[in-house]
Amino acid sequence: MERRDFVAAVAAGVARWDPGASPRGQPRRRHTADRPTVGIQVGAVSFVDEGTDKVLDEFRELATINTLFLATFTYGRGIAGRQLRGQPLPDHGAQAYDDDFRGGNFATPHPQYYRETSIVPEKAPEHPGYDVIADVLPAARRRGMRLYCWFEDVFRRDVPGFDRAAEIDLHGASTGLACHRNPNTRNFWLGLAEDYLRSYDVDGLMWGSERQGPLDNALAASHGGGGNGIGCFCPHCLDAAHRAAIDVDRAREGYLALERWATALRAGQRPTDGAFVTFWRLLVKYPELLAWERLWNEGLNDTYRDLYRLAKRVAPDKGIGWHIWHNNSFSPFYRAEQDYAEFARYSDFLKVVMYNNCGGPRLAQYVRNAHATLFADLTPEQVLPPTVSRPTTCCARPVARWPAPARGCASGPVSTSTFPRGRTTRRRSRRTCTRRCGQRSKAAPTACSCRASIRR
Ligand SMILES: [Zn+2]
């Protein structure tokens, strides 16, 4: 399937995976083959605040939701907390912020599944005595809704035992993120998946990791902060590098050089040969840069593969798929590493993240980040075309009839006015009268006040 068709299908609420058929084509219980997936992510706080029946009825009545992606594990507020302070509260639910959010497992962890990991399976303290799956599953069944456990790769440094699973950066410090290759991390995810599949009669699982490799992080090729998280250099990853015949010392040397290059560019220095040429020079000199990026991604892909194998062994009739980070929408570097054809070997479905912020501030921040280093030779506006694969239509109108960028369009291209005017944009439309007076004009008139024609 073409990426564009896939995205269109997901946007229409139709997952690629047909949840109505088993891998052998046999009917799946509770499902109908002709029912497209119309899903929503939802966390425990919504049910606790507003009442389970009320929330599910509104899902069904307002959006014909038939599938719940229930936030069952995360230490992040993005999918399990209330609104961030400083943002307006919604017009429903508790009118309060949850600044002391911690997170963890919002169902009930069963210790027998976590014997092979140092990470302690903590129950989220937000809702004591409340098991979100036990509460929501029967109510969802009564309404014919499917329920998937949605758990994501977000920890806290102070989770007991996490220090023995953490990623190690270029300088030997913990990044605060979990190493995909560390057995404590891998066994935690496998234990959690088995716990959900054996302890509850859910319809399946969805796991997600909104992270990228060291090369992408060094370039800050995302909407986040810049230049952090160059890893992993833990003993498990060093062993994997040795097995793959990657020179660890050369990789470390290359990433240190890349870090110096990026730091200098962000500080406003401009190499004589330009940012792109000097970056490419580093890649040629240190092919270990790309090798380490691949090594990191293979650790992540092994996690997908192991989770898929486990799920099919424990519950072959249930679905397991992946949440794909919205960095996919704007970073060609990240997008290149999300190979849907490869995913098809170990996925029942993909849930590719698309929401309005991807088309606006986050895309703009990605462009600013990329423009600060790799594309420093260009203007921010010039960074956009290779970044965004533009759809053929916007708001059901052909590209030629898109609103002018200055007027904006929620799902169209980002306005150039998104970027503050600075020295990178000042070249635009400045013209000079060279035939008579030599006068310069910003207003791009067709004739100079001396009545001679203007040329660029
Ligand atoms: Zn590692």
Description:
This protein has helices spanning 3-11, 44-50, 52-63, 132-142, 183-199, 214-218, 235-243, 248-266, 275-285, 288-314, 332-336, 340-343, 361-372, 380-387; strands at 39-43, 67-74, 104-105, 146-152, 166-168, 174-178, 204-208, 319-324, 349-352, 393-394, 397-398, 431-432, 440-441. The protein is α/β, with parallel strands linked by helices. It has a domain at 3-212 and 294-355: TIM Barrel. Strands 1, 2, 3, 4, 7, 8 and 9 form a seven-stranded mixed beta sheet that branches. Strand 10 (393-394) and strand 11 (397-398) form a beta hairpin. Helix 5 (183-199) runs parallel beside helix 10 (288-314), helix 8 (248-266) packs antiparallel against helix 9 and helix 13 (361-372) crosses helix 14. Zinc ion binds next to helix 7.
Class of the domain at 3-212 and 294-355 in CATH? Alpha Beta
Which segments are poorly predicted (pLDDT under 50) over 5 or more consecutive residues?
Answer: 1-32, 390-438, 441-456
Q: H/E series, N to C?
A: HEHHEEHEEEHEHHHHHEHHEHHEEEE
Could you report the average pLDDT, rounded to the nearest whole number? 83
